[in-house]
Amino acid sequence: FSGNQGQEFKVCIYDKRYYCRACFGNYAYCIPSKIIYNWDHNKYRVSKKSFDFLTQVHTLPNIDLSKLNISLYNHVPELAKVRDYRRMLNMVREYLVRCNSKDEVSYEVIRKKLGTHQYYWDSPHLYSIADLTKSFSGQLQSYLKKLSQKCVHHVYCCKKCSSLGFICEYCQNPKIIFAFELQTTDQCAGCGAVYHKSCKRNGPCPKCIRKEYILNKNKRHITT
User: Fold this and answer.
1) What proportion of the chain, given as a percentage, has pLDDT over 90?
2) How confident is the model at residue 220 (pLDDT cuts 50, 70, 90)?
3) Residue 205 needs a FRET pair 20 to 30 A away by CA distance; which of 3, 129, 151, 194 works?
4) Residues 46, 51, 57, 61: what is their CA dihedral angle, to the nearest 10 degrees?
5) pLDDT tens digit sequence for 93-102
6) Model pLDDT, residue 45
7) Other CB atoms closer than 10 Å to residue 105's CB: what's the count?
8) 133-142, 160-169, 177-186, 196-205: range with lowest mean pLDDT
9) The pLDDT of residue 6
């Protein structure tokens, strides 16, 4: 403030600091914290210094919603869909990695298509400011929907990929099910087995019980 008595100062909404007119400039940008906690994508007056910084980090995936505000998904349906499509891609990737198909939905083709956005199927909760902005506009949702549907279609149609599906051990229905069928199936966190949501019960899943039984049996066999 020294030497600037009588001059009007402006507050940068991003860093909350005061700037003189010369340093403040005429810049506006969306504020990450307002997006993360209020889903507010309006642009606010910021200093040139903050504008340059926010522009620089705009595409960096350094926002982990699972740690910052996981409940945002409950209040923003379009963002919840983005998360679900990314979860689907994350699960489908495990099939594509094992598949030797050379078609347009092979692992290498999808990996190259994602480019610098590998985190789309690596970490479903990781976002850049640009990703959240595209989620708000519906652009990211549309892109991920098409990509995930294409990958899922491949798994259903590919003989090798479809053979890696599951049978629900509760109802024993012979129809193959997959973990990426988020609306109708659940996956056991312990063993990875997949069951119908409508069939699943409280307590350990059948496969976990079976594995525990075999483990205990082997332990008894070793000690005798």
Assistant:
1) 72
2) low
3) 151
4) 30
5) 999 999 988 8
6) 94
7) 22
8) 196-205
9) 52
pLDDT of residue 167: 94
Do 28 and 86 form a contact (C-beta atoms < 8 A)?
no
Name the nearest CA neighbour of 27 among 1, 46, 12.
46
Q: How far apart are CA 88 and CA 180, in angstroms?
A: 5
> Within 13 Å of residue 175, how many CA atoms lie on the same side as its CB?
8
Q: 125 vs 20, 46, 121, 158, 170, CA distance in Å?
A: 38, 27, 10, 29, 31
Q: What is the structure's pLDDT at 5?
A: 56
Q: How far is residue 105's CA from residue 154's CA, in Å, rounded to a whole number?
A: 7
For 181, the token pair is 């069928």
